[in-house]
Write a structure and sequence with these properties.
Helices cover 17% and strands 24% of the residues. It has one domain: Beta Polymerase, domain 2, CATH 3.30.460.80. The strands form two sheets. The chain has a six-stranded mixed β-sheet with strand order 1-2-3-6-5-4. Strands 7-8 form a two-stranded parallel sheet.
Length: 199
């Protein structure tokens, strides 16, 4: 299996082959998915399994249900925009899931990379920024996936209620994208004050 790109010099990660010496779960994943493109990286003892976007649902289902894995808790679903990152990355957006197995006392981070196919300054649906929802595996993913959509414009296919959760429906951007202005686009300056006494 392929090793993750070597990022040691710039980010502190080091690439490794998919072996059990890094994390016991990796050997189980490798055995279950010998034909999948998998890689792993470690940073200060935290292991990240990198998978292809098309494989997210299948591998996540395995990680929760396999007896040797049993990742019963999804603690986080998040994303990051690597636009202009100093080290090359496999894609612009990294979608990240943080898992915990209580029965095996292990934690694992899983990441998949997405590359937009459209201009990212607006809110147009981009077919390059779609990935499988895991709400049918961990019900607690419902709101975090909505937040990732709201902030980054990444859609989760199969989500039962894929709409914004923090901002209003027609908000003209996704504020955690790196090409969104730090001061916004006039939202604060043009905000209409609500007179509570008059309502």
């Amino acid at each position: 299996m392929a090793a993750a790109p070597d990022r040691q010099a710039s980010s502190g990660y080091y690439a490794t082959s998919m072996t059990h010496e890094l994390h016991p779960t990796l050997a189980h994943v490798r055995a279950a998915f010998p034909d999948k493109k998998l890689s792993a990286a470690d940073f200060r003892g935290c292991t990240t399994l990198v998978i292809e976007p098309a494989d997210v649902h299948e591998i996540m289902h395995f990680l929760q249900n396999d007896h040797d894995c049993e990742y019963n808790l999804l603690s986080h679903v998040t994303a990051a925009d690597y636009l202009d990152y100093p080290a090359p990355q496999p894609g612009r957006f990294g979608v990240t899931w943080m898992l915990r197995s209580h029965s095996h006392d292990r934690s694992l981070t899983v990441r998949a990379w997405l590359t937009p196919t459209l201009d990212t300054s607006g809110i147009e649906d981009d077919p390059g920024l779609v990935i499988a929802s895991v709400t049918d595996i961990w019900a607690g993913a419902e709101w975090p996936e909505r937040e990732v959509f709201d902030m980054f414009g990444i859609r989760f296919k199969g989500h039962p209620d894929m709409r914004r959760i923090l901002l209003w429906r027609d908000y003209p951007g996704h504020p955690l994208r790196k090409d969104y202005p730090l001061r916004g686009r006039g939202e604060r300056e043009n905000a209409v004050e609500i007179d509570r006494a008059a309502t």
